[in-house]
């Protein structure tokens, strides 16, 4: 990605439809909603979260709107003032399925439209999502200042007042990218979706790496094939033990080994399991 950007995440809402619960701290797939959003923009130059400080999976800068609970316009203004990049990625903290691909699409769309002042995601029904968007910082601050002057305050103002004054380009959302969690029903839906066949393993591996502080990308297919070979060629309990030993061997290779070290250790172990299976076939 060539576009340098800062990220502003709004995480201080009242969550009235969740009974006032701490929405950014609600867990989906074992990770808080806030951490899931932060994971979608790891290459932001500076990440500012507008909320009261809390533990997060990676370091962020904290700020708060004045007055606290003053609404999205006031929160966005407070967050934007803590940034320095020319492009700001603005996100709400309740997007469990936001991913890096969607972030890149927004940044690329803004970069490829020189006359645009913001690139907004649109949901499945074509509605603008101003809290899933990339903004040029200067026009954003300009419009916020104009609104503050015109209204006397940004508190309580709707976001449409901001986007109505900006030159926009729009990006259609990928499936689920704009799904947000406003109710407990939404939370239940999100929790069920991550367990669907075809996505549950990726979700689980991401959650484990996040929990253990591991950033290494590995080919899960290689490890699953190894587990299968060990289970079939040796014994079922050999599968988890073998994959553990592969991870240990890769760790001993040092950080410079990276994913290649995991792949090489898995290749050797798989070849050994296949030799065991061949001996069994000969004995049979």
Count of DSSP E strands? 9
Roughly what percent helix? 40-55%
> Rounded to an integer, what's the Rg over CA atoms?
23 Å
In what order do the strands lie side by side in the largest sheet?
5-4-1-6-8-7-9
Protein architecture, described:
By secondary structure, the chain is of the alpha/beta class. The chain has ten helices and nine strands. The longest helix has 26 residues, at about 260-284. The relative contact order is 0.11. This is Molybdenum cofactor guanylyltransferase.
Structure summary:
With 284 residues, the protein is α/β, with parallel strands linked by helices.
Layout of secondary structure:
Layout: E1 6-10, E2 27-28, E3 31-32, H1 33-39, E4 47-50, E5 61-63, H2 72-80, E6 87-92, H3 100-111, E7 118-122, E8 128-136, H4 137-151, H5 160-163, E9 168-172, H6 184-193, H7 200-212, H8 220-233, H9 238-252, H10 258-283
Parallel strand pairs: 1-4, 1-6, 4-5, 7-9
Antiparallel strand pairs: 2-3, 6-8, 7-8
Helix pairs in contact: 8-9, 8-10, 9-10
Domain DUF6457: 197-280
InterPro entries: DUF6457, MobA-like_NTP_Trfase, Molybde_CF_guanTrfase, Nucleotide-diphossugar_trans
Domain MobA-like NTP transferase: 7-147
């Amino acid at each position: 990605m060539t576009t340098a950007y800062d990220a502003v995440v709004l995480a201080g809402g009242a969550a009235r439809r969740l009974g006032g619960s701490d929405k950014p701290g609600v867990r989906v797939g074992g990770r808080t909603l806030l951490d899931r959003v932060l994971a979608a923009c790891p290459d932001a130059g500076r990440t500012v979260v507008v909320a009261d400080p809390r533990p997060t999976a990676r370091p962020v800068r904290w700020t708060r709107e004045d007055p606290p609970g003053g609404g999205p316009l006031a929160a966005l203004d407070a967050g934007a003032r803590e940034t320095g990049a020319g492009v700001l990625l603005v996100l709400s903290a309740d997007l469990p399925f936001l991913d890096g691909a969607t972030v890149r699409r927004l940044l690329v769309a803004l970069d490829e439209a020189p006359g645009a002042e913001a690139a907004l995601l649109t949901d499945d029904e074509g509605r603008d999502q101003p809290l899933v968007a990339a903004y040029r910082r200067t026009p954003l601050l300009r419009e916020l200042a104009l609104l503050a002057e015109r209204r006397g305050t940004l508190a309580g103002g709707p976001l449409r007042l901001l986007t109505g004054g900006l030159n926009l380009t729009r990006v259609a959302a990928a499936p689920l990218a704009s799904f947000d969690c406003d109710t407990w029903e939404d939370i239940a839906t999100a929790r069920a979706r991550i367990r669907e066949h075809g996505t549950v393993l990726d979700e689980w591996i991401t959650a484990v790496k996040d929990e253990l502080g591991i950033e290494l990308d590995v080919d899960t297919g290689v490890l699953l094939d190894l587990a299968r070979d060990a289970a079939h060629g040796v014994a079922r309990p050999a599968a988890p033990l073998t994959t553990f030993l592969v991870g240990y061997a890769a760790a001993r290779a040092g950080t410079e080994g990276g994913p290649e070290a995991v792949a090489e250790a898995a290749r050797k172990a798989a070849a050994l399991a296949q030799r065991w299976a061949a001996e069994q076939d000969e004995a049979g």
